[in-house]
Design a protein that fits this description.
- By secondary structure, the chain is α/β, with parallel strands linked by helices.
- The chain is built from 4 helices and 8 strands, in the order E-H-E-E-E-E-H-E-H-E-H-E.
- One of its GO terms (molecular function) is nicotinamidase activity.
- Pfam families: Isochorismatase.
Length: 201
């Protein structure tokens, strides 16, 4: 059975000191590096948030405060600080992440009008990123997922992987939550497990 590792958004803006830092984000990088070192993956894929500066998920572009929610093209949109802007240091992958074995990079969130938490498609399910086609072209049947943040981009990437027919596993030690709400991490794990996604602890 061919398997892939999907590493979600391990970028400077989500790590310590970043514009949208996830608590303890840096602590997962050695674990992810070890996974790549100790396991044989047929494909190792990085997803990368890659927003234009005028992206409408940014509070600054809507005259809103970070943490407010608006309706954006018919779906609720949480207002984020500016982050992972194309071509900036914040959008780059963290220097400690070993990329020697990476085979493919998927950029997401490039459409000004709609956010894209999942590595597979935007939040409106209008546009796919090409990740599903890439995995199926390479006969991948099982995907393991790590990265940032558990309660947003990791969660929706895992759900979309499962819904696309892949056996889907989440490494609990390879992810951290942004925890906009206090129980986000716990609730996300329960939600994913209930859907049929395997949690590897």
């Amino acid at each position: 059975m061919k398997k892939a590792l999907i590493i979600v958004d391990v970028q400077n803006d989500f790590c310590e000191g970043g514009a949208l830092a996830v608590p303890e984000a840096n602590s997962i990088i050695p674990y992810i590096n070890l996974l790549m070192e100790e396991n044989e993956y047929d494909e190792i894929i990085l997803t990368q948030d890659w927003h234009p500066a005028n992206h409408k998920s940014f509070a600054s572009n809507n005259g809103k405060n970070v943490g407010e929610t608006i309706s954006l093209n018919g779906v609720p949109q949480f207002m984020w600080p500016d982050h992972c802007v194309q071509g900036t240091f914040g959008a780059e992958f963290h220097k400690d992440l070993n990329r020697d074995k990476v085979t493919h990079i998927i950029q997401k969130g490039k459409n000004v009008e709609i956010d894209s938490y999942s590595g597979f498609q935007d939040n409106n399910h209008f546009m796919k990123t090409g990740l599903e086609d890439f995995l199926k072209y390479h006969d991948i049947q099982l995907v393991e997922i790590v990265g940032l943040a558990l309660d947003y981009c990791v969660k929706f990437t895992a759900i979309d992987a499962f819904n696309a027919g892949f056996i889907t596993c989440l490494h609990f030690n390879g992810t951290k939550a942004v925890n906009v709400k206090p129980d986000s991490a716990r609730n996300t794990i329960y939600d994913l497990a209930e859907k049929g996604i395997t949690i590897l602890a």
